[in-house]
Structures are given as structure tokens and as C-alpha cells.
Amino acid sequence: MAAGQSSRMRGIKQLLPWKGTFLLQHIVNVVKNIQPQKIKMVLGANIEKIKSRLEINEGMVDIIENPTWQNGLGNSIAVGVASILKSNPLPKGILICLADQPLVTEEYLMDLLDNFKTNKVDVVASNYGKRIGVPAVFGPSIYKELLGLNSDYGAKEILRKKSTAMLSLDAYGLLADIDTPSAYEKIYNENHNS
């Protein structure tokens, strides 16, 4: 998910520098390393500027334009899931990641997927201590609810309702809430050598 405008940032958040590349390219590279069947990237605001910077394998990554990205993260999730569900066969699970979580590792994503495959739950989500969120893997029983999202709250409400059919993994050290220039500067400085 990388469709938002990032109005509180001084520039395009998805293109902020990170580890020799930029935030969105970094998370795409991390996801590629877990060898998914397909990556669907939902873009909206600043789509042409972002696309011009991306280095992706066209066969592996599909870019989906969300013309209604202003409706928020939930709407972008619904647009992405709708695109995924056009594929045949129906996927056994959908992993949702955000462009502004650069501390998420491929090991952590593999842990989410492995737990999803071995436990009989509808969702395997990330536990940040005070909240449950993404990255998360959603099973087929949740697809219809994901398609119905249309707000800025993402999958929060779904995760809250599914707490009894969900497994959550400790993700305390992986949360990087990059919503302001000062938050980005802080996390950048903590993760880059001077």
C-alpha cells in the first residue's frame, strides 16, 4: 500500500531516502526476497513520479492505480484485494504491507507466512503492544470484508473483530510510524551510519 498523499511530509513520503534507495523500493525489495507468487502495489497520489523511480520486474510486480486514493488506506486495500481476486486460482492468503514500514524484515514476513500456513486462523497480524496491525496475512474468509473497506482506518476494525480467529506476532521493534518529517528524520538517523 503506497497510495496516500502524505500531506504532513515535505515531499513524497514513498520516495524518501532509505538504505541506498527509497522507502517504497526498499519494502518492494524486502517483499521480493520472500518470493511471493505476485506483488500488487497500489499507488494513487504522485503515481507518475513514483513509477518513474521504481525498479521493478514487470512480471513480478503489478502496479494498480487507485483513482479514489483520497478515501484512505482502507479504500486502497479494497482496490488491491479486488485486483488480486481477479487471479485464478484464488490465493490462499494475502499479505498486506505498507510502504512506510522500512524496519520490517524478510525474516519477519516469512514468520507471518509460516504461522499462517501452520495455524488454523483467519489472520496472522503484527502486535505492536498497544495495537494490532499490518503487516498481516489474511485468509479467504476475510476477503469480502477487505473488499468492503473504504475509510482511512485500513484493516483495524477487521482485526479488532477477528481477535478470536487471529494470531498476532510480536512486532515491537519493527514499527516505524513515519507520518511527520521529524519522525522520518529520527528513524532515518537511528538506522543509518553517519
Automatic annotation (TrEMBL):
Q: Which InterPro entries match?
A: MobA-like_NTP_Trfase, Nucleotide-diphossugar_trans
CDD domains from the entry? Answer: GT_2_like_f
Q: Where is the MobA-like NTP transferase domain?
A: 1-162
Name the chain's protein. Nucleotidyltransferase family protein
